[in-house]
């Protein structure tokens, strides 16, 4: 049931903009510069909850011949800052009016606000506060999206965002990862939600390194106290990337397109059960083969350690390990993490060494104690440990490290072996 609204708005600006809206049966439209404006909603889903948690409001414009007008052209029409502000408020009013008529008393409404509008208006947007009072839409159900672009008044932007937060709204940064985005804005504005630009997802789809960067960005944003939404998901592969990256929310054509058919909005469901089932099946196949690697190299580690304990030199002790095509190097460290002698590099890896990184090759007396694989081995002796893939500083390539702490003549030693992270699965096959 649509909340009742006062017949005469108390705010003259609300009154002015209200006159530009027209009831179209159950929902509302608006007029601006001869164009008819309509609301379209696109669902936003939580992966973990497997359901809709919000809707982004998008403006749709039609000319007198009912032909679509692109939003970018609509927002080029205002001839002054005052008219730009008027259009922004008209869109927000229209979206809130339409959302108030939907049978949903739980989920968020995402509203876009340009920094140019925010910083050109009054410091406290009393219009918006009065609008929420009039429509009786609880402010905690509103997410104010600040579009990621430069602004001339960062202090005013921060103050205005603080105002929306004081009203009780959530705040979000939109299009993070686009041309002007940086973490400084995250630190300055402390948004509740960060929406990642679809370009990050496009690059992650095409480039494995970009996928790792995406995962890192999501992790950093979570550490900054932000929930993360990935928009622009258009294929099942991109949905898998989103799940793997650890984002909280997703949005895109793959799940549901924006729609002006507001009466059918509640039918916009997505089959997350099947999606997560497919992800789990794929993940079992493509995940880092930790247990397989440990099992595969366990005997070779035992043999190498037995030889070291018998007095053999590293080159002789690790001969079998180094002969495997996926092994890049072996080295030995003492209980303080300091490397004993230099690293043994496999013949395969030696042929691929990049001369640009030659200053990093010699690691004699290097201290690896800060590395987790070294501390973990020392904490749990006689157990073969393995890391997640990481960037090896000595060769600048992705690897995983196997490490095992053992006793030799009363002293603790840690044998380490780096495995190429991108080695083909066939290399681990028996025979």
UniProtKB/TrEMBL annotation:
<dbReference type="InterPro" id="IPR035919">
    <property type="entry name" value="EAL_sf"/>
</dbReference>
<dbReference type="InterPro" id="IPR050706">
    <property type="entry name" value="Cyclic-di-GMP_PDE-like"/>
</dbReference>
<feature type="domain" description="EAL">
    <location>
        <begin position="20"/>
        <end position="272"/>
    </location>
</feature>
<protein>
    <submittedName>
        <fullName>EAL domain-containing protein</fullName>
    </submittedName>
</protein>
<dbReference type="InterPro" id="IPR029151">
    <property type="entry name" value="Sensor-like_sf"/>
</dbReference>
<dbReference type="InterPro" id="IPR001633">
    <property type="entry name" value="EAL_dom"/>
</dbReference>
<dbReference type="Pfam" id="PF00563">
    <property type="entry name" value="EAL"/>
</dbReference>
């Amino acid at each position: 049931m649509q909340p009742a609204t006062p017949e005469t708005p108390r705010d003259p600006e609300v009154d002015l903009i209200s006159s530009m809206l027209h009831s179209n049966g159950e929902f509302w439209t608006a007029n601006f510069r001869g164009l008819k404006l309509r609301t379209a909603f696109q669902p936003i889903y939580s992966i973990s909850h497997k359901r809709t948690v919000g809707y982004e409001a998008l403006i749709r414009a039609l000319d007198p011949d009912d032909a679509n007008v692109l939003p970018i052209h609509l927002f080029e029409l205002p001839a002054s800052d005052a008219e730009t502000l008027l259009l922004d408020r008209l869109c927000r009013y229209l979206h809130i009016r339409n959302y108030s008529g939907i049978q949903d008393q739980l989920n968020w409404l995402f509203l876009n606000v340009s920094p140019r509008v925010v910083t050109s208006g009054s410091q406290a947007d009393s219009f918006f506060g009065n609008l929420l009072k009039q429509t009786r839409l609880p402010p905690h159900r509103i997410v104010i999206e600040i579009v990621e672009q430069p602004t001339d008044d960062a202090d005013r932007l921060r103050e205005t965002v603080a105002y929306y937060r004081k009203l009780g709204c959530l705040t979000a940064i939109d299009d993070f990862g686009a041309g002007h985005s940086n973490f400084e804005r995250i630190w300055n504005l402390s948004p509740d939600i960060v929406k990642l630009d679809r370009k990050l997802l496009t690059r992650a789809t095409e480039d494995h390194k970009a996928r790792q960067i995406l995962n890192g960005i999501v992790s950093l944003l979570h550490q900054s106290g932000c929930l993360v939404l990935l928009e622009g998901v258009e294929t099942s592969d991109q949905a898998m990337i989103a799940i793997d990256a650890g984002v909280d929310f997703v949005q895109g054509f793959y799940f549901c397109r924006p729609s002006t058919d507001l009466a059918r909005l509640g039918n916009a469901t997505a089959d997350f059960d099947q999606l997560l089932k497919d992800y789990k099946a794929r993940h079992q196949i493509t995940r880092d083969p930790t247990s397989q690697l440990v099992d595969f190299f366990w005997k070779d580690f035992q043999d190498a350690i037995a030889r070291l304990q018998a007095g053999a030199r590293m080159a002789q002790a690790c001969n079998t390990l180094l002969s495997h095509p996926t092994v890049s190097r072996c080295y030995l460290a003492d209980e303080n993490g300091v490397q004993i002698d230099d690293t043994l590099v496999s013949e395969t890896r030696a042929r691929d060494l990049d001369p640009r990184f030659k200053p990093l090759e010699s690691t004699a007396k290097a201290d690896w104690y800060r590395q987790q694989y070294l501390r973990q081995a020392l904490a749990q002796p006689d157990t073969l440990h393995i890391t997640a893939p990481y960037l090896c500083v000595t060769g600048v390539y992705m690897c995983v490290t196997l490490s095992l702490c053992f006793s030799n003549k009363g002293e603790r030693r840690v044998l380490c072996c780096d495995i190429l992270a991108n080695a083909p699965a066939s290399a681990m096959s028996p025979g």
